[in-house]
Model the fold of this input.
Amino acid sequence: MGVIDTVALTKRYPSVTALDQLDVSVGEGVTGLVGANGAGKSTLIKILLGLTPATSGTAHVLGHDVTTAGSTIRSLVGYMPEHDCLPADVSASDLVVHMGQMSGLPYPSARERASDVLRHVGLAEERYRPIGGYSTGMKQRAKLAQALVHDPRLVLLDEPTNGLDPSSRDDMLALVRRIGTEFGIAVLVTSHLLGELERISDHVVVLDSGKLLQSSATEDFMHATGNLLVEVQGRSDADRVLGQALVDAGLRAWPSGQMVEVEVVDETTPDVVRDIVVDLGLGLVRMQERHHRIEDVFREGGAGSVQPV
Done:
Protein backbone atom coordinates (compact mmCIF):
# COMPACT_ATOMS: atom_id res chain seq x y z
CA MET A 1 0.00 0.00 0.00
CA GLY A 2 1.26 3.49 -0.89
CA VAL A 3 1.27 6.67 1.15
CA ILE A 4 -1.91 7.59 -0.75
CA ASP A 5 -4.15 5.14 -2.61
CA THR A 6 -7.41 5.83 -4.41
CA VAL A 7 -9.69 3.39 -6.23
CA ALA A 8 -12.44 4.61 -8.56
CA LEU A 9 -12.55 7.84 -6.55
CA THR A 10 -15.35 10.06 -7.82
CA LYS A 11 -16.68 13.43 -6.70
CA ARG A 12 -19.73 14.89 -8.40
CA TYR A 13 -21.34 18.25 -7.88
CA PRO A 14 -24.70 19.22 -9.41
CA SER A 15 -23.12 20.80 -12.48
CA VAL A 16 -19.67 19.19 -12.70
CA THR A 17 -17.72 16.01 -12.02
CA ALA A 18 -14.58 17.10 -10.15
CA LEU A 19 -13.03 13.62 -9.96
CA ASP A 20 -13.95 10.77 -12.27
CA GLN A 21 -13.07 7.15 -11.36
CA LEU A 22 -9.59 8.13 -10.18
CA ASP A 23 -7.17 5.26 -9.51
CA VAL A 24 -3.82 6.50 -8.26
CA SER A 25 -1.07 5.46 -5.85
CA VAL A 26 1.45 7.87 -4.30
CA GLY A 27 4.63 6.64 -2.64
CA GLU A 28 7.51 8.16 -0.70
CA GLY A 29 9.54 11.11 -1.96
CA VAL A 30 8.10 14.08 -3.85
CA THR A 31 5.05 13.48 -6.04
CA GLY A 32 3.83 16.24 -8.32
CA LEU A 33 0.11 16.56 -9.01
CA VAL A 34 -0.29 18.61 -12.17
CA GLY A 35 -3.35 19.86 -13.98
CA ALA A 36 -5.03 23.01 -15.23
CA ASN A 37 -7.24 25.03 -12.92
CA GLY A 38 -10.39 22.96 -12.43
CA ALA A 39 -8.63 19.65 -13.07
CA GLY A 40 -9.59 18.34 -9.62
CA LYS A 41 -6.35 18.88 -7.69
CA SER A 42 -7.77 20.82 -4.74
CA THR A 43 -10.84 18.58 -4.57
CA LEU A 44 -8.61 15.54 -4.29
CA ILE A 45 -6.64 17.12 -1.43
CA LYS A 46 -9.83 17.97 0.48
CA ILE A 47 -11.03 14.38 0.14
CA LEU A 48 -7.67 13.02 1.26
CA LEU A 49 -7.85 15.17 4.38
CA GLY A 50 -11.33 13.93 5.17
CA LEU A 51 -12.78 17.42 4.74
CA THR A 52 -14.99 16.62 1.74
CA PRO A 53 -16.79 13.29 1.20
CA ALA A 54 -16.36 11.47 -2.08
CA THR A 55 -19.44 10.55 -4.10
CA SER A 56 -18.11 7.04 -4.63
CA GLY A 57 -14.88 5.04 -4.61
CA THR A 58 -12.29 4.75 -1.86
CA ALA A 59 -9.20 6.60 -0.68
CA HIS A 60 -6.61 5.69 1.95
CA VAL A 61 -3.91 7.96 3.40
CA LEU A 62 -1.09 6.32 5.36
CA GLY A 63 -3.27 3.21 5.52
CA HIS A 64 -6.30 5.05 6.96
CA ASP A 65 -9.70 5.25 5.25
CA VAL A 66 -10.59 8.89 4.60
CA THR A 67 -14.28 8.25 5.26
CA THR A 68 -13.79 6.95 8.82
CA ALA A 69 -10.40 8.27 10.00
CA GLY A 70 -10.29 11.91 8.94
CA SER A 71 -9.12 13.20 12.32
CA THR A 72 -6.35 10.58 12.51
CA ILE A 73 -5.20 11.46 9.00
CA ARG A 74 -5.12 15.18 9.80
CA SER A 75 -2.95 14.48 12.86
CA LEU A 76 -0.41 12.70 10.66
CA VAL A 77 -0.50 15.01 7.64
CA GLY A 78 0.62 18.60 7.11
CA TYR A 79 -1.41 20.82 4.79
CA MET A 80 -0.38 24.04 3.07
CA PRO A 81 -3.46 25.63 1.45
CA GLU A 82 -3.27 27.51 -1.82
CA HIS A 83 -5.03 30.69 -0.73
CA ASP A 84 -3.88 33.18 1.88
CA CYS A 85 -5.51 32.34 5.22
CA LEU A 86 -3.06 33.93 7.66
CA PRO A 87 -4.10 36.30 10.49
CA ALA A 88 -2.48 39.66 9.81
CA ASP A 89 -2.00 40.66 13.47
CA VAL A 90 -0.31 37.43 14.59
CA SER A 91 3.40 36.67 14.34
CA ALA A 92 4.64 33.64 12.45
CA SER A 93 6.03 32.27 15.71
CA ASP A 94 2.68 32.47 17.51
CA LEU A 95 0.83 31.02 14.53
CA VAL A 96 3.14 28.03 14.14
CA VAL A 97 3.18 27.35 17.89
CA HIS A 98 -0.63 27.44 17.91
CA MET A 99 -0.85 25.06 14.96
CA GLY A 100 1.59 22.72 16.69
CA GLN A 101 -0.64 22.68 19.76
CA MET A 102 -3.71 22.10 17.56
CA SER A 103 -1.90 19.04 16.21
CA GLY A 104 -1.45 17.65 19.72
CA LEU A 105 1.99 18.93 20.74
CA PRO A 106 2.40 20.21 24.31
CA TYR A 107 3.31 23.92 24.49
CA PRO A 108 7.07 23.48 25.17
CA SER A 109 7.42 21.03 22.29
CA ALA A 110 5.35 23.26 20.01
CA ARG A 111 7.62 26.25 20.74
CA GLU A 112 10.76 24.20 20.10
CA ARG A 113 9.40 22.74 16.89
CA ALA A 114 8.17 26.16 15.71
CA SER A 115 11.63 27.64 16.17
CA ASP A 116 13.19 24.79 14.19
CA VAL A 117 10.80 24.85 11.23
CA LEU A 118 10.80 28.65 10.95
CA ARG A 119 14.58 28.50 10.73
CA HIS A 120 14.39 25.78 8.08
CA VAL A 121 12.02 27.82 5.91
CA GLY A 122 14.08 31.00 6.27
CA LEU A 123 11.97 33.01 8.71
CA ALA A 124 14.19 32.84 11.79
CA GLU A 125 14.86 36.58 11.87
CA GLU A 126 11.31 37.60 10.97
CA ARG A 127 9.36 35.16 13.14
CA TYR A 128 8.20 37.72 15.72
CA ARG A 129 6.88 40.26 13.19
CA PRO A 130 3.11 40.41 12.46
CA ILE A 131 2.31 38.40 9.35
CA GLY A 132 0.37 41.32 7.87
CA GLY A 133 3.70 43.02 7.10
CA TYR A 134 5.13 40.01 5.28
CA SER A 135 5.82 39.80 1.57
CA THR A 136 4.05 37.13 -0.47
CA GLY A 137 7.14 34.92 -0.32
CA MET A 138 7.34 35.22 3.46
CA LYS A 139 3.66 34.38 3.83
CA GLN A 140 4.14 31.25 1.73
CA ARG A 141 7.04 30.23 3.97
CA ALA A 142 4.89 30.77 7.07
CA LYS A 143 2.19 28.54 5.57
CA LEU A 144 4.80 25.89 4.87
CA ALA A 145 6.16 26.13 8.43
CA GLN A 146 2.74 25.51 10.01
CA ALA A 147 2.34 22.43 7.80
CA LEU A 148 5.63 21.00 9.13
CA VAL A 149 5.52 21.91 12.81
CA HIS A 150 4.08 18.61 14.07
CA ASP A 151 6.62 16.50 12.14
CA PRO A 152 4.07 14.94 9.78
CA ARG A 153 4.64 11.77 7.79
CA LEU A 154 3.10 13.40 4.69
CA VAL A 155 2.59 17.00 3.58
CA LEU A 156 0.04 18.17 1.01
CA LEU A 157 1.21 21.41 -0.62
CA ASP A 158 -1.41 23.15 -2.76
CA GLU A 159 0.26 25.51 -5.28
CA PRO A 160 3.11 26.53 -2.92
CA THR A 161 4.68 28.86 -5.51
CA ASN A 162 1.46 30.74 -6.22
CA GLY A 163 2.12 34.49 -6.58
CA LEU A 164 5.90 34.23 -6.17
CA ASP A 165 8.51 35.95 -8.33
CA PRO A 166 11.05 33.69 -10.12
CA SER A 167 13.69 33.95 -7.38
CA SER A 168 11.23 33.23 -4.56
CA ARG A 169 9.76 30.40 -6.61
CA ASP A 170 13.17 28.77 -6.94
CA ASP A 171 13.72 29.06 -3.18
CA MET A 172 10.34 27.50 -2.43
CA LEU A 173 10.96 24.62 -4.84
CA ALA A 174 14.32 23.94 -3.19
CA LEU A 175 12.55 23.81 0.20
CA VAL A 176 9.95 21.39 -1.13
CA ARG A 177 12.68 19.14 -2.52
CA ARG A 178 14.52 19.17 0.82
CA ILE A 179 11.37 18.13 2.65
CA GLY A 180 11.11 15.01 0.51
CA THR A 181 14.81 14.15 0.63
CA GLU A 182 16.61 15.48 3.72
CA PHE A 183 13.57 15.52 6.03
CA GLY A 184 12.26 12.16 4.80
CA ILE A 185 8.65 13.38 4.65
CA ALA A 186 6.47 12.24 1.75
CA VAL A 187 5.25 15.19 -0.31
CA LEU A 188 2.28 15.64 -2.63
CA VAL A 189 2.66 19.04 -4.31
CA THR A 190 0.19 20.53 -6.79
CA SER A 191 1.02 22.96 -9.55
CA HIS A 192 -0.26 24.11 -12.93
CA LEU A 193 3.35 24.94 -13.90
CA LEU A 194 4.85 21.91 -15.63
CA GLY A 195 8.51 22.86 -15.36
CA GLU A 196 8.30 23.14 -11.58
CA LEU A 197 7.25 19.53 -11.16
CA GLU A 198 9.84 18.25 -13.61
CA ARG A 199 12.55 19.87 -11.49
CA ILE A 200 11.59 18.57 -8.04
CA SER A 201 9.36 15.51 -8.35
CA ASP A 202 10.27 11.83 -8.24
CA HIS A 203 6.84 10.92 -9.55
CA VAL A 204 4.16 12.86 -11.43
CA VAL A 205 0.38 12.41 -11.51
CA VAL A 206 -1.35 14.20 -14.40
CA LEU A 207 -5.04 15.09 -14.10
CA ASP A 208 -7.38 16.54 -16.69
CA SER A 209 -11.02 17.35 -15.89
CA GLY A 210 -10.93 14.97 -12.94
CA LYS A 211 -9.56 12.05 -14.93
CA LEU A 212 -6.12 10.47 -14.71
CA LEU A 213 -4.04 11.08 -17.83
CA GLN A 214 -0.82 9.52 -16.57
CA SER A 215 0.96 8.51 -13.39
CA SER A 216 4.61 7.55 -13.62
CA ALA A 217 8.15 8.31 -12.51
CA THR A 218 9.30 11.75 -13.68
CA GLU A 219 12.18 10.21 -15.62
CA ASP A 220 9.65 8.24 -17.68
CA PHE A 221 8.29 11.54 -19.03
CA MET A 222 11.76 12.64 -20.03
CA HIS A 223 12.88 9.87 -22.37
CA ALA A 224 14.38 10.71 -25.76
CA THR A 225 11.94 10.73 -28.68
CA GLY A 226 14.43 9.86 -31.41
CA ASN A 227 14.03 13.34 -32.91
CA LEU A 228 16.37 16.31 -33.12
CA LEU A 229 15.68 19.90 -32.13
CA VAL A 230 17.58 22.39 -34.27
CA GLU A 231 17.94 26.11 -33.59
CA VAL A 232 19.41 28.38 -36.24
CA GLN A 233 19.96 32.09 -36.73
CA GLY A 234 21.03 34.45 -39.50
CA ARG A 235 17.68 35.77 -40.77
CA SER A 236 14.24 36.50 -39.35
CA ASP A 237 12.66 33.43 -40.97
CA ALA A 238 15.64 31.10 -40.47
CA ASP A 239 13.57 28.33 -38.87
CA ARG A 240 11.04 28.34 -41.72
CA VAL A 241 13.76 28.31 -44.39
CA LEU A 242 15.56 25.43 -42.68
CA GLY A 243 12.36 23.45 -42.24
CA GLN A 244 11.49 23.75 -45.92
CA ALA A 245 15.03 22.76 -46.97
CA LEU A 246 14.91 19.68 -44.75
CA VAL A 247 11.57 18.63 -46.23
CA ASP A 248 12.92 19.21 -49.74
CA ALA A 249 15.82 16.90 -48.82
CA GLY A 250 13.36 14.12 -47.97
CA LEU A 251 13.36 14.48 -44.18
CA ARG A 252 10.32 14.94 -41.94
CA ALA A 253 10.56 18.28 -40.15
CA TRP A 254 8.12 20.64 -38.45
CA PRO A 255 8.14 23.78 -36.28
CA SER A 256 8.70 23.39 -32.53
CA GLY A 257 8.48 26.82 -30.92
CA GLN A 258 11.41 28.83 -32.24
CA MET A 259 13.19 25.67 -33.38
CA VAL A 260 12.76 22.95 -35.98
CA GLU A 261 12.11 19.35 -34.99
CA VAL A 262 13.53 16.71 -37.29
CA GLU A 263 12.78 12.99 -37.35
CA VAL A 264 16.00 10.96 -37.15
CA VAL A 265 16.13 8.35 -39.93
CA ASP A 266 19.57 6.92 -39.16
CA GLU A 267 22.95 7.94 -37.71
CA THR A 268 23.65 10.21 -40.71
CA THR A 269 20.67 12.51 -40.05
CA PRO A 270 22.60 14.97 -37.81
CA ASP A 271 25.28 15.32 -40.48
CA VAL A 272 22.66 15.94 -43.17
CA VAL A 273 21.01 18.61 -41.05
CA ARG A 274 24.36 20.29 -40.33
CA ASP A 275 25.31 20.34 -44.03
CA ILE A 276 21.95 21.85 -45.01
CA VAL A 277 22.35 24.59 -42.40
CA VAL A 278 25.82 25.39 -43.80
CA ASP A 279 24.55 25.39 -47.40
CA LEU A 280 21.82 27.85 -46.42
CA GLY A 281 24.39 30.18 -44.86
CA LEU A 282 22.67 30.00 -41.48
CA GLY A 283 24.26 29.87 -38.06
CA LEU A 284 23.73 26.66 -36.10
CA VAL A 285 22.95 27.65 -32.50
CA ARG A 286 22.29 24.15 -31.20
CA MET A 287 21.22 20.67 -32.23
CA GLN A 288 20.05 18.28 -29.52
CA GLU A 289 17.95 15.22 -28.84
CA ARG A 290 14.34 16.04 -28.13
CA HIS A 291 13.03 14.63 -24.85
CA HIS A 292 9.42 14.17 -23.92
CA ARG A 293 8.24 16.51 -21.19
CA ILE A 294 5.15 16.52 -19.02
CA GLU A 295 3.53 19.06 -21.35
CA ASP A 296 3.55 16.40 -24.11
CA VAL A 297 1.11 14.32 -22.06
CA PHE A 298 -1.33 17.24 -22.10
CA ARG A 299 -0.76 17.88 -25.79
CA GLU A 300 -1.33 14.24 -26.73
CA GLY A 301 -4.25 13.89 -24.33
CA GLY A 302 -5.94 17.07 -25.48
CA ALA A 303 -5.89 18.53 -21.98
CA GLY A 304 -6.63 22.09 -20.97
CA SER A 305 -4.20 24.95 -20.62
CA VAL A 306 -1.24 24.18 -18.38
CA GLN A 307 1.79 26.43 -18.24
CA PRO A 308 5.17 24.87 -19.21
CA VAL A 309 7.13 27.59 -17.28
Observations:
- The first helix runs from residue 41 to 48.
- The chain has a mean pLDDT of 89.
- The radius of gyration is 23 Å.
